[in-house]
From TrEMBL:
It comes from Bosea thiooxidans. Pfam families: BPD_transp_1. Residues 128-343 form the ABC transmembrane type-1 domain. The keyword Transferase does not apply. The chain crosses the membrane at residues 9-30, 130-151, 163-189, 219-242, 279-304, 324-343. It is a multi-pass membrane protein. This is Microcin C transport system permease protein. Belongs to the binding-protein-dependent transport system permease family. GO terms for biological process: microcin transport; transmembrane transport. The keyword Transport applies. Keywords: Cell inner membrane, Cell membrane, Membrane, Transmembrane, Transmembrane helix, Transport. It comes from the Bacteria.
Length: 361
């Protein structure tokens, strides 16, 4: 198993290299960039985000020499444009910038944000707890509900319980999380009905003055609506996955043999079926967590004014803040690869018969 872990860790290096390389190449051909953003702000200080990131005649990475290469740069001193390119690092060839980025990222040195005047690593450290909080609570809540419900639906397949719970699950799957979030705000956050939960932030302004119990209560009070909004779709998916997995196992020959030996239904279900059926559910955990952490949290963070990685990444992309964009991509990819490795190790722990090392040999 140790050699398998070592191989998986070694494979992360070329995987991260490929992800960064493809993303870096795409950025070179993407319209707009930090130089154009500065030029746009100089020409029109009140311009909106759409104006700031408008297309250019050529990408920042390949623009050297003439100020007219940038839209709106006519009339500006070419020396000033050169200084901007040097400030953002675009005075060097693309391959040199990419190799320097790889060396810096190997040391977890992500540089400074172009427009926030702060180290990128510091920004990520500030935002990461918010996204991890949402991702973990959403995953735990959805699994805590969906696994027992999915098992019950499999045991009661075809019953009235299975029918009406399936209707609820399908509706939950069909409703987008951001739409459900708006509904929760309207109902419970002072939108039109009750003012029960807060609308923004993870803690109250007086959180530091609260007792330990008060801090826990205040924290749970703030995350209730965001977590519920995010868990809706994941709960539906996990429930159907659990039900189908248990149904597949229940119909196998070894279950019939266990029943013929006189084992109770509970003994068959939790003594034999559970371990095998849970493998596919465990396999879905990395996807659920990573999706909640990186993709599903974006709209929820925006709606509930939660300053996490999702919102940080979105703003960095809009503003062409490339150090933040690539650092988030690197962190996201690394966490995803590590979580998948942990999932494989969990497979072996749940079912010792699974030996990844012998499969790869």
């Amino acid at each position: 198993m140790l050699s398998y872990i070592a191989r998986r860790l070694a494979l992360m290096v070329p995987t991260l290299f490929g992800i960064l390389l493809v993303s870096f190449v795409i950025v070179q051909f993407a319209p707009g960039g930090p130089v154009e953003r500065v030029i746009s702000q100089l020409q029109n200080p009140n311009s909106g985000a759409a104006d700031r990131v408008g297309g250019s005649q050529m990408g920042d990475a390949g623009a050297h020499g003439e100020a007219s290469a940038y839209r709106g740069a006519q009339g500006l001193d070419p020396a000033f444009i050169k200084e901007l390119e040097k400030q953002f690092g675009f005075d060097k060839p693309a391959h040199e910038r990419f190799l320097k980025m790889l060396g810096d990222y190997a040391r977890f040195d992500f540089g400074r944000s172009y427009f926030r005047d702060a180290p990128v690593l510091q920004l990520i450290k500030e935002k990461l707890p918010v996204s991890i909080t949402l991702g973990l609570w959403m995953t735990l809540l959805s699994y805590a509900i969906s696994i027992p419900l999915g098992i019950r639906k499999a045991v009661k397949e075809g019953s009235r319980f299975d029918t009406w719970t399936s209707a609820i699950v399908i509706v939950g799957y069909a409703i987008p999380s951001f739409l459900f979030a708006i509904l929760l705000i309207v109902l419970f956050a002072g939108g039109s009905f009750w003012q029960i939960f807060p609308l923004r932030g993870l803690t109250s302004d007086n959180w530091a003055d609260l007792s330990l119990f008060g801090k826990v209560k205040d924290y749970l009070w703030h995350i209730t609506l965001p977590v519920l909004a995010m868990a809706l779709g994941a709960f539906a998916t996990s429930t159907l996955l659990t039900k189908n997995s248990f149904l597949d196992e229940i119909r196998k020959q070894y279950v019939l043999t266990a029943r013929m030996k006189g084992l109770s239904e509970r003994g068959v279900l939790y003594g034999h079926v559970f371990r095998n059926a849970m493998l596919i559910v465990i396999a879905g955990f990395p996807g659920a967590f990573v999706h909640a952490l990186f993709a599903g949290s974006l709209l929820i963070e925006t709606i509930f004014s939660l300053d996490g990685l999702g919102l940080l990444s979105f703003e960095a992309i809009v503003n062409r803040d490339y150090p933040v964009v690539f650092a988030n991509l690197y962190i996201f990819s690394l966490i995803g690869l590590v979580v998948h490795l942990i999932t494989d190790l969990t497979y072996s722990w749940v079912d010792p018969r699974i030996d990844f090392e012998s499969r790869e040999a």
